[in-house]
Specification:
The structure is a single chain. This protein is of the alpha/beta class. The chain has one domain: Alkaline phosphatase D (PhoD) (Purple Acid Phosphatase, chain A, domain 2), CATH 3.60.21.70. It has ten helices and 15 strands. The strands form three sheets. Strands 4-5-8-9-11-10-12 form a seven-stranded mixed sheet, with helices on one face. Strand 10 and strand 11 form a beta hairpin. The protein is globular.
Length: 383
Amino acid sequence: MNNIRRLATKTLLVSSCFVALFVSGFIGSVVAAKEPSPARSLSLQTANVTHILFGSCSHQDKAMPIFNAILQEPADGFIFLGDNIYGDTEDMQELAQKYKKLGQNPGVNALRSKVSVYAIWDDHDFGENDAGKQYSFKAESKKIMLDFWNVPEDSPRRSREDGIYGSYVISPTNVDIEEAGVSGSNAIRVILPDLRYMRDDLESVGLKRYQTERKHKDMGPYTYSKGSMLSEQQWQWIEIELQQPERIKIIGFSLQLIADFTGWESWANFTDRQRLFDLIKKHRVNGVFIISGDTHWGEISKFNTNMDYPLWDVTSSGLTEEWKQVSPNKHRVSGYTDEVNYGFFTVDWNLQDPSIHFGLKDLKGTVVMQQNITLSSLSPYQP
């Protein structure tokens, strides 16, 4: 979002108007560049350790030297969290060409040949800056996106009329979710919601308030908005996904969940965030962990207000994009990075209380921030 924020903000604020912008199957197939295959993953699963990498915001016209470091990492999967290209067009041929260019990038191509790769979209690969359900070409864009990531033709993600959301399981045998019968003992369920296809319109504070109240705080033009980012069908799907047996549930959002209201796009723009918190408590869901993209800076956020255990949100952005005017966030821990970065999440299942190591790494693969926790710290609910 950030590389054209100034242009988008100016256009939005001058007009001072809104931005234009049960479940077809309970379990969806994964959005994968290649179908998950244990033989192809650069994995340490044989040591009962699971490695997941993730990132966002990769401009197809730019070099991506960060993949030199990523390709050296052990990995059981890489998750692209949106803005995987910068499409920003109503010309679907142009959009497809931009995906093609991403696929021709040497680093991306090497990653797809060696590691199971999964993806969700954000606004720029959806097709328009900050767009939601009003985007006129969302059905066409959906097909192009799913074709690029080689999603099977019979996948529910193709037939759903309210988005491309889906989930998958990474287990010691790296079994795809559609295989079924995966034990919940030492497995991770990755849940990828779609925050674009049915998102209601955003509302702006107007030019004057932006200039006098927001701009000097590095905040954006949006205010609290009516509606939701998700359809009711997708909410039902998320509720079902949260109740699945895997001990860890990573939810991969294209927008930040935990960060304070910043005036830019995030979960804080709607009442959706509290609804998600309430579902976790209602169903006594252990092991929820958030990863997110979008911002063009990286940070780790921690939230435990009125929750029974802390919710962590690791924002990794971007793989090529940087934004220096970092917005405030009182839930931020370990500072932030305004340089290119990627995220890592590692679980050592060998311990009686499995350890979790997560954080962000830079262009050279050097850790720039990290946290170490135990699975029990995310698991207060007894069966």
